[in-house]
Amino acid sequence: MKLTTSLNRSLWVFHFNSGSCNGCDIEIVATLTPRYDPERFGVKLVGSPRHADVLLVTGPVTNQMADRLRLVYAQMPGPKLVMVVGTCGQSGGVFSTSYNLAGPIDQIIPVDVYVPGCAPRPEAIIQGVVTAIAKLERLQGGGEA
């Protein structure tokens, strides 16, 4: 697996919590520990969506966060991918009938990679990042994504 020249640097990821219970966020932090150390593969969390290649979103989207999520997505340069971590982001999970949800993430912005689980293990999150890298390669190669 090799990224094209514009992504030869590390793959930068911006994390956005759209209303999560923090279970997925804790697993993301566990993924960043030296035990898994995704930075050795060039994966790095960044503090601004303007520098990110991948938007990593956790939780269902609350009404208050829907416009902010659209804004963060619009601030990312292309090619960009969205990776949803956790069941709540995919379907709303146990919060799906809540009055204050705008919906699952794919009803707000386009989603490229899903990482299922409540909360997903760090190995599953790393697999999702590998899937995102493969999809970015296809996007950069001009192929069908």
TrEMBL record:
<dbReference type="GO" id="GO:0051539">
    <property type="term" value="F:4 iron, 4 sulfur cluster binding"/>
</dbReference>
<dbReference type="InterPro" id="IPR006137">
    <property type="entry name" value="NADH_UbQ_OxRdtase-like_20kDa"/>
</dbReference>
<keyword id="KW-0408">Iron</keyword>
<protein>
    <submittedName>
        <fullName>Formate hydrogenlyase subunit 7</fullName>
    </submittedName>
</protein>
<dbReference type="GO" id="GO:0046872">
    <property type="term" value="F:metal ion binding"/>
</dbReference>
<keyword id="KW-0479">Metal-binding</keyword>
<keyword id="KW-0004">4Fe-4S</keyword>
<feature type="domain" description="NADH:ubiquinone oxidoreductase-like 20kDa subunit">
    <location>
        <begin position="21"/>
        <end position="131"/>
    </location>
</feature>
<dbReference type="InterPro" id="IPR052375">
    <property type="entry name" value="Complex_I_20kDa-like"/>
</dbReference>
<keyword id="KW-0411">Iron-sulfur</keyword>
<dbReference type="Pfam" id="PF01058">
    <property type="entry name" value="Oxidored_q6"/>
</dbReference>
<comment type="similarity">
    <text>Belongs to the complex I 20 kDa subunit family.</text>
</comment>
